[in-house]
């Protein structure tokens, strides 16, 4: 029997002169509940939803064109998660665009509350200066304190000073020593820049934010999400208590391994900071050359 789309032509009994009629096998079948639901459902973008489900989840099932062409749309969409997702994507795109040509860089962390003239401020400034002289850009959170000091030392030595600032309830502007500044709304987008474009982390004394960045880096290295780059803690007196606790508690409980503690290096010497970073950079080049040959 010849088929025509979803239908087929059949002959009535009574010979070849009988009248043809179109017959569908489901013509007289009762419509199933799921068929009714499908017929009444409405597609909105990639989502198909029935009126009942739309009411239960408070979803507008207008078509996307209807929403786009509204003459006076509500501004409430600016506070929705889909719109936030676009802002998040934009932060990554803008960050990647800005950072792509920076070249070798070292991320420096530390407290925003340590002011000019204090020992750790001057230590960070000297580290920034020596990193710039060694050919590295200095990347910080762009704020005051230790961040400002590292950016300042870098600029004074002619290096590229980069700041990734974060929107906070109490305004934190970029410090005046930043050459390339990027503003972020979201901590996690900013964190990606710190890790993705860093050849090393230098951690000076700081609070929760500094500790967050420290343990984020250690976790990424421990889980092999990033290569093992230097994580250098500056200020042996400041960090001693935390390191003792790591050995006495997590290590004793086997929550971490001895090799995990080996991911950290502690020093008070700016020249040693630079030497460790340069040595790691050379080792990386040698490894890549060996692999290529």
Provide structural commentary.
This protein is an alpha/beta fold and about 290 residues long. The protein has a domain at about 100-290: 3-Layer(aba) Sandwich (Rossmann fold). About 45% of the residues lie in helices and about 15% in strands. It is built from 11 helices and 12 strands. A 7-stranded parallel β-sheet has the order 9-8-7-6-10-11-12, sandwiched between helices. A 3-stranded antiparallel β-sheet has the order 1-2-3, with no helix packed on it. Strands 4-5 form a two-stranded antiparallel ribbon. Strand 10, helix 8 and strand 11 form a beta-alpha-beta unit. The chain is globular and about 65 Å long.
Q: Beta-strand level of the residues, as a percent range?
A: 15-25%
State the helicity in percent bands.
40-55%
Instruction: Give the class-level CATH name of one domain.
Output: Alpha Beta
Unreliable residue stretches = 1-32
Q: How many helices does DSSP assign?
A: 11
Radius of gyration: 31 Å
How does CATH name the architecture of one domain? 3-Layer(aba) Sandwich
Q: What is the number of strand segments?
A: 12
User: What would you call the shape?
Assistant: globular
Which series of helices and strands comes N to C?
A: EEEHEEHHHEHEHEEHEHEHHEH
Largest sheet, in brief, is: 7 strands, parallel
Separation, N- and C-terminal Cα atoms = 68 Å
Q: Please state the average pLDDT score.
A: 83
Oligomerization status of the protein chains: single chain
Q: Which strand order does the major sheet show?
A: 9-8-7-6-10-11-12
Helix vs. strand class: alpha/beta
What fold name goes in the CATH topology slot of one domain? Rossmann fold
